[in-house]
Each structure stands twice: as C-alpha cells, then as structure tokens.
Design a protein that fits this description.
The chain is an all-alpha fold and about 500 residues long. Among the domains are: about 150 residues, no CATH class; about 130 residues, Tetratricopeptide repeat domain (Serine Threonine Protein Phosphatase 5, Tetratricopeptide repeat). Helices cover about 75% and strands about 0% of the residues. It is built from 28 helices and no strands. Helix 7 packs antiparallel against helix 8, helix 12 packs antiparallel against helix 13 and helix 16 runs antiparallel to helix 17. The longest helix is centred in the N-terminal third of the chain and has 21 residues. The chain is globular.
Length: about 500
C-alpha cells in the first residue's frame, strides 16, 4: 500500500512538473499545421488549447514559429516590424514558467533562432548575431541536462553545421564568444535525428521540419550528390509545401529540371495554405530553362502577387530575356527598363538584374540559350549552342568571352570531361583578373570542388581560398559561404 501511494505521488509530481510544457495532441496538431503553412487552422487549435490548458507555455513557441514562417515566406517588412515586439513577451512567459522540462530552454533557444533568421533577412545583423549566440548557449546547456531530447538535436545540428562552415582563419571570432561547430558532425546529427523522429511517436510531427532544414544545409554546404539523390527520393512525394520547395531545389541542383517543375506544378493548392508565391517564380525559371515561353505568365504572376521585394527584379529581367529569345526587341527593352522600378538588392539574382538594366549590355542570345539549357540540366543542348558560336566575334566583348569560357567549363564538368573543365575554368580566372564579374570566383569554387572530389586537398584548399579572396562581385555572400564550407570539409 505504501509503495502504491509513493508511486502515485511520484507520477503526480512528474505530471505537475511538465504540465506547463505539455506536448499534447493539440500542440502536435498545431505544430503539424504550422509546418504545412496552414496557419489559420493551427491558430484555431492553439486557441482551443489555451482555453483548455491556459498555462501550457508551448502555445507561445508554436505561435512564434508561425510568425517566423510568415515573415520568411512573405518577406513583408511591415509584418516583421509589427510582430517582432511579441518576441520579448513570449520569452518572458516561458522564462517565468518554473517547470523542469527540456522544452523550456529549447523554446527560448528556438525563439531566439527564429528571430535571428528574420533579422538577417532585413539587415539587423548585430542583434541577429547576439540571438544566435544566445540560442547556441541555451541549446548546449539543455543538451547536457537532457541528452536524449530529440528536438534539441535538430537545432544543434543546424548550428553545428553553420558554425562549422566558418574556415579556421576566422575561428578566433567564434572562440571569443564560445561557439564551436563541425559541419560533418552537424549534418550527421541531423540525419540521425531524422531517422529517430520517423519512428518516435512523441516527436514524429517534427520530422518534416528537420528534413527541410537538413535539405538546404546539404544543398548549400555539402558536395555529396549521392546523398542528395537519396534525400530527393525521400521527400519528392511529400504533401508539405516546404518539402516541395526543398525537393524542387534539390532536383534542379541535380540537373533534373523536368522533375523540379513537376514537383511544384503538382503541389497542393488550397485556400487553407499560406500563399507561397516564390514557388511560381521557381516554376517560371524551370520553364525558361526549357525555353518555354509559358514562363512569362508565371513570372508576371509572381511580380503582381508577391508583396515582398526579393526576386522581382530578377523576374523582370527574365521576362526581358524571354522576349529576346522570341526576337521581340520592343518588349525586351520594355521589361529591361522596368527592372529599376521595383524590388530591392538583397539577393544576387536581383543584383544581376540591376546590372543588366544599368549597363544596357547587349545580351548574347546564343550564350543565353546555353546558360538556360545548362541550368536545366540539358547539357548536350548547352554544348551545341556553345560549339556553334564564333569565338573570334566573342573576343570583342570581354563579358561575352569570359562567359563563353565559363559556360564551356561548366558543361564539360557536368559531362565528366574533367580535363577540359579544369582548362576552361583556369582560362576564365586568368582572363578576368581586372574585372569584377562572377565568372572567376564561381570558377574558383568549382575548381575547389573538382580537386576535393579528386582527393587533392592542397589544390582544393587553394581554389576555395581564392574564391573567398575575390570580392565585390555578384553572389559574393553565397559563393563565399560555399567556399568556406569546402575548406571546413577538408580539415
């Protein structure tokens, strides 16, 4: 009898301790609907949970997650400014909760991380750096206290991977603030977490989110195409829009343009889902890679419907390109001129579009075809366009001449003619010494990847570092990040 009473008392104590972070069915369903971008439905479930269990602090974590995704997808500065004041209120409620639960420090860390990502999108870099550091410390502490708590592993995997992509010469910065990471370990931790979550009845509703984060880390920081092919097979038939997005990007990276288009065209389209207009832009790019004039309609839909700023200049540039391919000079110039009237200059594609507008360079139609075919994975078509060009005529314009060498290198690399690829990449770097186009740093990055694959660490390191050292060019941030990740893989 005494044993039974003690046991019941112990169970009641445990229930009481965790009651304020109750990962119950309401929270699981709200979280799932949030990841599915069904925010209104998720909010209704959370309101029900709030009335039934008013002290459940997990409500504030899930609400914050929905706000984070809205800001990331809509890119509306007004929405960002309106919602960011809620961060401190939510953190205050969670901190005041005295429950001994692994969800407490995790929730604090996630809210810091989510707002750091939002601030990075709108240029608030100093505050974002503070929040990332704060999240890292909270997650590290939580992992020591609760080493088997799977959600913690997901977020630590992300941070280990990102921090681990900083090369050694910059490690002194991280050591000052006590942050350490390892790219390979971070990716392995996320993969292990995914496999465990799949069969875990408690945390299975978080597997899609973890897949999404893992997919973009693998695409941008790793050079293992076999892993990407396997990952694509796992997520290409998902009914989650975020995973449709990730799968289409992986398919594009693997040169499977038709599959990328198919994934996006067959995605669920329903009024219950938050508008994800960027997917129209991606469909348009995919169609243009096939020289399909239907792309114009998708680009125009994106420009008209998306209330954010990014990729609007790029969309207009690409509409202009399409009219050039159709020999419509009037509309080619019309849309090129409109580039200046819309959007912003936060991403490389928009910076390229602005240069396209500003410099009024005569776009070389055959080189453009070669580029688009290559981007779609139609490598033989791209090579045919390049082989048909008169090289002597191209030499009269340095941009066209450099692009020709760069495109040749890219096609030969994909066709596994490594000797010719290396030769043309080196020619591109040599000829672009006094220019600030992106062909040379991208060539250096690709040479680093080629030599990494060949096992020549010295040459790989040399070219990754060369890519980092080249500055003031389009795509500087993204190319530098990839080169840094390459250096990390070599160490």
């Amino acid at each position: 009898m005494r044993f039974t009473l003690i046991t019941i008392f112990h169970i009641l104590l445990i229930h009481s301790a965790y009651a304020n972070f109750d990962w119950n069915e309401n929270c699981k369903q709200a979280y799932t609907n949030t990841i599915q971008l069904k925010f209104d439905k998720a909010n209704g479930i959370l309101e029900n949970e709030r009335s039934l269990n008013p002290t459940n602090s997990l409500v504030y974590l899930i609400e914050n997650y929905a706000d984070y995704l809205k800001i990331q997808i809509s890119e509306e500065k007004n929405e960002f400014d309106k919602l960011k004041s809620l961060k401190d209120d939510r953190l205050s409620i969670i901190k005041d909760d005295d429950s001994e639960s692994p969800w407490k420090l995790y929730s604090e860390a996630e809210i810091h991380l989510q707002w750091a990502a939002n601030r990075l999108k709108f240029g608030e870099y100093f505050t974002a750096a503070y929040e990332i550091n704060k999240a890292f410390r909270l997650l590290t502490e939580n992992d020591k206290k609760y080493p088997h708590f799977l959600p913690n592993k997901k977020s630590l995997g992300v941070l280990y991977s990102l921090i681990g992509s900083v090369p050694k010469q910059y490690n002194w910065v991280l050591s000052i603030i006590g942050m350490e990471g390892n790219l390979d370990n971070g990716l392995k931790l996320m993969r292990t977490t995914i496999d465990k979550m799949k069969t875990d009845s408690i945390y299975s509703s978080m597997v899609e989110e973890t897949y999404f984060l893992y997919a973009f880390l693998k695409m941008n920081l790793d050079n293992n195409h076999i892993d990407l092919k396997n990952l694509l097979e796992e997520i290409e038939n998902s009914d989650y829009l975020l995973l449709n997005f990730a799968a289409s990007r992986i398919a594009t990276k693997l040169g499977q343009n038709d599959l990328a288009i198919s994934i996006l065209e067959n995605r669920i389209k329903d009024k219950d889902y938050y508008p994800f207009h960027y997917l129209d832009y991606l469909i348009a790019v995919g169609k243009q890679n096939k020289l399909d004039s239907d792309c114009i309609e998708y680009f125009e839909n994106y420009v008209q419907n998306f209330s954010g700023l990014n990729y609007k200049k790029s969309a207009l540039m690409r509409i202009s390109w399409q009219y050039l391919l159709m020999d419509d000079e009037l509309n080619f110039k019309k849309y090129r001129n409109e580039v200046n009237d819309i959007g912003a200059l936060f991403v490389g594609a928009d910076k390229e579009a602005q240069d396209f507008h500003k410099n009024k360079l005569k776009t070389h139609k055959e080189l453009l075809k070669a580029r688009l075919y290559f981007d779609g994975g139609y490598y033989e078509n791209s090579l045919q366009e390049l082989d048909a060009l008169n090289l002597k005529e191209l030499e009269n314009t340095i941009y066209n001449y450099l692009e020709f060498n760069y495109r040749k290198a890219r096609v030969y690399e994909k066709l596994e003619n490594t000797y010719e690829a290396i030769n043309f990449y080196k020619q591109t770097i040599e000829k672009e010494k006094n220019e600030t186009f992106y062909f040379s740093p991208k060539s250096a990055l690709q040479l680093g990847l080629i030599f990494e694959k060949k096992g020549d660490k010295n040459q790989a390191s040399k070219y990754f570092q060369s890519c980092i050292d080249m500055q003031n060019h389009l795509y500087e941030k993204s190319l530098e990040q990839k080169a840094k990740a390459g250096l990390e893989r070599l160490n």
